[in-house]
């Protein structure tokens, strides 16, 4: 397919009627109907168009026919005069059939004659044709003959074509742009007179900013070169425009390219109104914005709210159907965090107080007629999406959540992970799976495709956000030493690894083990895992139920963070870049939301504490699970490790040796199987295996060799 997911859907009712004459089973019919609907989107011909077709039963005579539906370069036609009778409908190939625009017979002295089957139905066919053709639309001649014959709409846009592009900040200003490349309708454009690739733009050809050459002049709009991009003189810009226009007029872009452009609707916004919007600069969060200017009944200007004195305003031109604009309280109603304005003093943002403070009003709901359409998107669906920070890059993306008409996308395979980006369901920057392959465009793939074998029980990376509030139980310094991400892999394995890291980062690991035992939900699909910790010569062990499926990982992480009284984003599927959505950076242990509910000092757990000595909290009535405490037994294990490592140093690594490596007791005792082996890192090996740096590095080297061999075998 060469259209984004959001292209307008064709009304299939007419398509269904036109194919009912075929006697096929229902499953086959549904497949055919879907095939026709999809490829109708790519055709330059439209149902209802008229053309002149050779008569099958009479040589050298022609008759007017109507296009019923399209399928690529195939047209389903019906001769005029059959009315609603479908029995004589027929398919023809644009590339081989004798098809002509209406009026061709008159110009070439050819005979127009109705088919024999309907010749007697009407006494005056001339009068019939006059009524039939009045107000109708003929198929364009350039699509029926010549070099453009049978081409799809997207294919009509070739490299070197000239279009007019509306200015990003002034809706009444246009300038010409040249097509540098056309990837399935996604155009790389450069302004005429500006040859610097740094200023190239990527737009889908249905973008409302694009118009045919000459459109601005016909509509009495300004034609001005882009400002601030170059120090060229006005005469140089004019000369470049005149030269490009002269060349473009020799082979003009067919107007059929713009037939699918959506019509703009009038808006109801007024200056001063407040609303919510996906941040135009960083589409990773939603922020309060204001309507600061109304240009006309179609366009208005929105400015991101910023109360700081030295702020540089961020403006964006919008229309009634612009993606990402939302009514006030949308985030609150949908359980989504709202970024408070820069310079707003209160830690907790409340719209009622904010509107009163600024003396403004909220935009009424009537301004947002389509604020709840989801278009059938669901969590964990996969698609291909544009990287918002690198528009030329398309990535594999997974939907992490759907709220109303907004999608949160996890872009996979990036060298530097980004927070989930937010896009509208009508965005022209999202595409179905396989779009890049179909259009020969590179796609940024998953870095570790092995996790796609069974997506239900595998999760993508879980992030440890070092800057987030760590709560009363976890040591901030130890948290900072942890890796930034763990995974991807099986959910239970990744979660066990990250929970083990958190336990060993605690002031008192035994206390954290007890807290983690309380994280349960009867509706979760769990498996029981043994978690271990060490503290001052003691080893602690307890059983915990960990979720197994990807759809429950996010909630599980949130519940663990709540239990540990830390920021909800300390670890989980959300990556925090500069500022946490929970605004936890400025919080202290005595002020943080969850911690201030009850004052808890640093956990006190005696060095010689046994099971019976552990004090039960007064509020907790649930029966506590056992935590087993045992003394270290390092001699035999360390000795075995030294022997095993010596062997791996002096002999070549073989499959049998790698198998023996994972079957030794410094692995069986720790419950490390093959899956967990692939997640081991140097800090984990050092702390959990009681190894010094030298042996730990050598062991990690062997583990890396196993990883390389494993991924080389299974990645494809």
TrEMBL record:
Its main location: nucleus. InterPro entries: Mbt (IPR004092), PcG_chromatin_remod_factors (IPR050548), SAM/pointed_sf (IPR013761), SLED (IPR021987), SLED_sf (IPR038348). PROSITE patterns: MBT (PS51079). GO terms for molecular function: chromatin binding; histone binding. It is found in: Nucleus. GO terms for cellular component: nucleus. Residues 459-573 form the SLED domain. Residues 603-622 are annotated as: Disordered. Keywords: Membrane, Nucleus, Repeat, Repressor, Transmembrane, Transmembrane helix. The keyword Transport does not apply. GO terms for biological process: negative regulation of DNA-templated transcription. It comes from the Eukaryota. The chain crosses the membrane at residues 21-41. MBT repeats lie at residues 1-115, 123-226, 235-341, 349-446. It holds the Pfam family MBT. This is Scm like with four mbt domains 2. The lineage of its organism: Eukaryota, Metazoa, Chordata, Craniata, Vertebrata.
């Amino acid at each position: 397919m060469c259209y984004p997911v959001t292209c307008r859907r064709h009304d299939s009712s007419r398509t269904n009627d036109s194919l009912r004459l075929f006697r096929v089973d229902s499953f086959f019919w549904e497949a055919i109907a879907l095939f026709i609907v999809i490829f109708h989107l790519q055709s330059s011909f439209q149902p209802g168009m008229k053309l002149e077709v050779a008569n099958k039963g009479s040589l050298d005579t022609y008759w007017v026919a109507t296009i019923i539906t399209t399928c690529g370069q195939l047209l389903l036609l019906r001769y005029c005069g059959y009315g609603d009778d479908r029995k004589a409908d027929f398919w023809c190939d644009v590339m081989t059939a004798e098809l002509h625009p209406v009026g061709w017979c008159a110009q070439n002295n050819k005979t127009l004659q109705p088919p024999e089957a309907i010749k007697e139905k009407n006494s005056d066919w001339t009068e019939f044709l006059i009524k039939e053709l009045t107000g109708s639309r003929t198929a364009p001649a350039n699509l029926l003959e010549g070099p453009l014959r049978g081409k799809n709409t997207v294919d009509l846009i070739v490299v070197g074509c000239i279009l007019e592009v509306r200015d990003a900040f002034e809706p009444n200003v246009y300038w010409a742009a040249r097509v540098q490349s056309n990837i399935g309708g996604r155009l790389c454009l450069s302004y005429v007179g500006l040859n610097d690739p740094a200023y190239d733009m990527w737009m889908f050809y249905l973008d409302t900013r694009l118009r045919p050459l000459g459109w601005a002049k016909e509509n009495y709009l300004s034609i001005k070169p882009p400002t601030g991009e170059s120090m060229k003189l006005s005469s140089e810009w004019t000369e470049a425009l005149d030269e490009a226009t002269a060349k473009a007029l020799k082979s003009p872009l067919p107007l059929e390219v713009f037939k699918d452009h959506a019509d703009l609707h009038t808006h109801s916004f007024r200056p001063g109104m407040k609303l919510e919007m996906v941040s135009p600069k960083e589409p990773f969060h939603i922020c309060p914005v204001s309507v600061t200017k109304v240009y006309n009944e179609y366009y208005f200007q929105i400015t991101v709210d910023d109360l700081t004195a030295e702020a540089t305003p961020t403006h964006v031109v919008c229309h009634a159907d612009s993606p990402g604009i939302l009514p006030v309280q949308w985030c609150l109603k949908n359980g989504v965090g709202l970024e408070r304005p820069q310079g707003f003093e209160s830690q907790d943002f409340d719209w009622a107080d904010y509107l009163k403070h600024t003396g403004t009003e909220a935009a009424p709901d009537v301004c947002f007629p389509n604020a709840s359409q989801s278009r059938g998107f669901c969590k964990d669906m996969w698609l291909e999406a544009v990287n918002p920070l690198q528009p030329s890059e398309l990535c594999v993306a997974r939907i992490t959540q759907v709220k109303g008409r907004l999608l949160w996308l996890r872009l996979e395979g990036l060298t530097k992970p980004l927070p989930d980006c937010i896009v509208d369901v009508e965005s022209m920057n999202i595409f179905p799976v396989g779009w890049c392959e179909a259009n020969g465009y590179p796609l940024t793939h998953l870095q570790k495709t092995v996790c796609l074998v069974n997506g239900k029980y595998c999760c993508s990376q879980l992030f440890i956000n070092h800057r987030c509030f760590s709560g009363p139980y976890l040591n901030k310094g130890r948290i900072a030493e942890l890796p930034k991400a763990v995974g991807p892999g099986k959910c239970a394995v990744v979660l066990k690894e990250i929970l083990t890291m958190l336990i060993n980062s605690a002031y008192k690991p035994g206390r954290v083990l007890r807290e983690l035992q309380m994280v349960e939900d009867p509706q979760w699909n769990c498996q029981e895992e043994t978690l271990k910790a060490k503290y001052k010569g003691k080893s602690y062990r307890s059983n915990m139920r960990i979720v197994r499926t990807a759809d429950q990982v996010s909630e599980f992480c949130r519940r663990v963070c709540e239990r540990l009284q830390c920021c909800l984003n300390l670890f989980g599927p959300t990556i925090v870049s500069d500022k946490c959505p929970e605004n936890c950076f400025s919080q202290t242990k005595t002020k943080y939301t969850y911690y201030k509910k009850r004052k808890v000092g640093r956990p006190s757990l005696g060095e010689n504490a046994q099971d019976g000595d552990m004090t039960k909290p007064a509020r907790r009535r649930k029966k506590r699970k056992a935590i087993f405490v045992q003394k270290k037994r390092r001699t035999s294990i360390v000795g075995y490790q030294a022997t095993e490592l010596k062997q791996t140093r002096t002999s070549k690594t073989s499959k049998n040796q790698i198998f023996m490596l994972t079957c030794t007791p410094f692995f069986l005792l720790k419950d490390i199987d093959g899956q967990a082996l692939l997640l081991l890192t140097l800090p984990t090996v050092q702390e959990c295996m009681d190894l010094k740096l030298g042996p730990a590095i050598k062991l990690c080297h062997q583990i890396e060799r196993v990883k390389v061999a494993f991924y080389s075998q299974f990645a494809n």
